[in-house]
Design a protein that fits this description.
The protein has 347 residues and is an alpha/beta fold. The chain is built from nine helices and 20 strands. The protein has two domains: 147 residues, FAD/NAD(P)-binding domain (3-Layer(bba) Sandwich), CATH 3.50.50.60; 166 residues, Polyamine Oxidase, Chain A, domain 2. Strands 7-6-15-16-17-14-18 form a seven-stranded mixed sheet. A six-stranded mixed sheet has the order 9-2-1-13-20-19, covered by helices on one side. The protein binds flavin-adenine dinucleotide.
């Protein structure tokens, strides 16, 4: 396996933050890199939707910075206006009512949407969208990446699987140790509802950690920097409710979570809804995550990365991708995945 050969080819499966961070690092080190993703654009769970005059970040909401390596990247992104600080007025909503949260944690968002970091990492890379990799097959000379009907999508010396652990385990079938590790991580679902209101919501806060009813997080998306359009809100259901309702009709979920918002905020006269939609995240947040920051089998030329290795957040995904690239480049890795805590329920 020519993992230290500057001509060696790498295919990265998954154009989320982990896959793109790795691809960028490998390409900068002279590897020939192709990224394949089944989705419509890069970003994975850092996604954005524009509809009906409203703009929504319906996946990741914001990110925090815990490690020097990620801070260096975030500062570069700030200088090039890829990200900006977001200072929401935050509250906690519980059975007793709504209580302001006073803390000074730095929060950042992509501009104009949470997919901005992925778009920046993907620039000048060979990213193939709408391509689902069904399985990997070892030949004498290389790995074949097979799509639907076993059509050969690509060949590579090395494959980095940067997909959630269920999908990763399928693709890593020839590496039983990596499969066993991936099976130790678990992903929890999240229903996200997007509500566009006909006018400003009469609430004195922009984000709420909700501890009553089905909701876990509510945010005024239009309070983030660089957003255009109308008064856009995001509602996230907690993992238990999302799991119990994962196959529900999206219209029913919109109605139920909109009602939950009104119940959690008695006395608030929410404006009329002008736009509504829902997104079902089957694999939203990992818990537990692995102790390893990435998984690499140098002999086979197979690796895996993602937030389920690096930590359940954007920073964890990014650092996991970098660690995998470091290992594949023979640099070893000394990445601190952060302190491991996850603020709030989804963010
Ligand atoms: C609702 C929600 C709220 C969140 N809130 C926050 C937050 O506020 N702050 C925070 O830091 N993090 C948050 N997160 C978590 C954050 O989004 C993730 O930790 C991070 O984006 C994961 O990146 P990743 O590259 O590991 O995986 P992903 O972004 O999931 O990327 C994996 C990619 O692999 C592709 N893929 C999978 N299988 C295949 C296949 N077989 N063939 C081709 N492509 C494939 C997928 O299409 C996807 O694009 C949230 C996530 C969700 C869903």
């Amino acid at each position: 396996m020519k993992t230290n050969d500057a001509r060696s080819t790498v295919v990265v499966v998954g154009a989320g933050l982990a896959g793109l961070a790795a691809a960028r690092e490998l390409a900068d080190a002279g590897r020939r890199v192709t990224v394949m993703d089944e989705g419509r654009g890069p970003g994975g769970r850092t996604s954005r939707r524009v509809r009906g005059g409203f703009q929504y970040d319906h996946g990741a909401q914001y990110f925090t910075v815990r490690t020097p390596r990620f801070r260096t990247k975030v500062e570069a992104w700030r200088r090039s206006a890829v990200v900006a600080p977001w200072s929401p007025r935050l509250v906690a909503v519980d059975a007793e009512g709504t209580v302001p949260k006073t803390e000074t944690r730095e929060r950042y968002v992509g501009v104009p949407g949470m997919d901005a970091m992925a778009a920046d990492l993907a620039r000048d890379l060979d990213v193939r969208r709408g391509v689902r990799v069904e399985r990997l097959k070892r030949t004498d000379a290389a790995w074949q990446l097979l799509g639907d009907g076993d059509v050969v999508l690509a060949e590579a010396d090395t494959v980095l699987v940067a997909a959630p652990p269920d999908q990763a385990a399928t693709l890593l079938a020839d590496a039983p140790d990596l499969v066993a590790a991936a099976r130790r991580a678990e992903m929890h679902p999240c229903w996200a509802v997007m509500l566009g209101f006909a006018g400003p919501a009469p609430v004195g806060w922009d984000g709420a950690f909700v501890n009553v009813g089905p909701l876990s997080w509510v945010a005024r998306n239009s309070s983030k920097p660089g957003r255009v359009g109308g008064e856009a809100w995001i509602l996230h259901a907690g993992p238990a409710w999302s799991r119990a309702h994962i196959d529900d009709d999206s219209g029913d979920v919109v109605a139920c979570l909109h009602d939950a918002l009104r119940q959690a905020t008695p006395g608030i006269d929410w404006p009329e809804v002008a736009d509504a939609g829902a997104h079902r995240w089957r694999f939203a947040l990992p818990d537990p995550v692995l102790a390893e920051v990435c998984l690499v089998d140098q002999t086979l030329g197979l690796a895996a990365a993602g937030d389920w290795c690096g930590g359940p957040r954007i920073e964890g995904a990014y650092l996991s991708g970098l660690a995998a690239a470091d290992r594949l480049l023979g640099r070893g890795h000394a990445v601190d995945p952060g302190d491991g805590d996850q603020e709030g329920k989804t963010s």
